[in-house]
Automatic annotation (TrEMBL):
<keyword id="KW-0472">Membrane</keyword>
<feature type="domain" description="Acyltransferase C-terminal">
    <location>
        <begin position="20"/>
        <end position="88"/>
    </location>
</feature>
<keyword id="KW-0808">Transferase</keyword>
<dbReference type="GO" id="GO:0003841">
    <property type="term" value="F:1-acylglycerol-3-phosphate O-acyltransferase activity"/>
</dbReference>
<comment type="pathway">
    <text>Lipid metabolism.</text>
</comment>
<comment type="pathway">
    <text>Phospholipid metabolism; CDP-diacylglycerol biosynthesis; CDP-diacylglycerol from sn-glycerol 3-phosphate: step 2/3.</text>
</comment>
<comment type="similarity">
    <text>Belongs to the 1-acyl-sn-glycerol-3-phosphate acyltransferase family.</text>
</comment>
<keyword id="KW-0812">Transmembrane</keyword>
<feature type="transmembrane region" description="Helical">
    <location>
        <begin position="108"/>
        <end position="127"/>
    </location>
</feature>
<keyword id="KW-1133">Transmembrane helix</keyword>
<dbReference type="Pfam" id="PF16076">
    <property type="entry name" value="Acyltransf_C"/>
</dbReference>
<keyword id="KW-0012">Acyltransferase</keyword>
<feature type="transmembrane region" description="Helical">
    <location>
        <begin position="83"/>
        <end position="102"/>
    </location>
</feature>
<dbReference type="InterPro" id="IPR032098">
    <property type="entry name" value="Acyltransf_C"/>
</dbReference>
<dbReference type="GO" id="GO:0016024">
    <property type="term" value="P:CDP-diacylglycerol biosynthetic process"/>
</dbReference>
<protein>
    <recommendedName>
        <fullName>1-acylglycerol-3-phosphate O-acyltransferase</fullName>
        <ecNumber>2.3.1.51</ecNumber>
    </recommendedName>
</protein>
């Protein structure tokens, strides 16, 4: 994704950000960049990046003259019920996992420790296991080939 941020009246300074002063109005332009659109060779990438930044400069120039990006989207209100249900779900899962971690049997603690160790080592050694669905399909295909 290519994200361009435009500030309506003035760009916030470092001190504004440090002290938490919110900008008056912020506009965000998001453009999806397909992987196929990105060239492979270094010369083509250089040209593509230059064109992309020229486009972004033009986008910001138009924003400052017109006050908005092209094709503005609509901003919808968040549903209070959905937000409340999501918050309750997250709190419930957090409390359940915390309870099980501290007050359950030793086997749950062994399981949690094992999963953490596995995920840490899989991340460190870049291990990508076969998905379970793919494994099941391979077993079924192999069994049907035997018969």
């Amino acid at each position: 994704y290519d994200v361009t941020i435009g500030y309506k009246y003035r760009c916030p300074s470092f001190m504004d950000n440090a002290f938490g002063v919110d900008p008056a109005e912020v506009h965000v332009h998001v453009r999806r960049v397909h992987l196929d659109d990105i060239p492979m060779s270094e010369n083509e990438v250089t040209s593509w990046l230059m064109d992309t930044f020229h486009f972004k400069d033009q986008l910001l120039s138009d924003f400052h003259s017109k006050g908005h990006f092209p094709n503005p989207g609509t901003e919808k209100e968040l549903s209070t019920v959905k937000c409340l249900l999501n918050a309750i779900g997250v709190i419930f899962l957090t409390c359940t996992c915390t309870y099980l971690t501290f007050f359950s049997s030793i086997w749950f603690k062994v399981y949690v420790s094992s999963v953490c160790a596995y995920l840490a080592s899989a991340t460190y050694f870049n291990i990508r296991p076969q998905p379970i669905a793919g494994y099941g399909k391979a077993v079924i295909t192999r069994n049907s080939a035997k018969h």
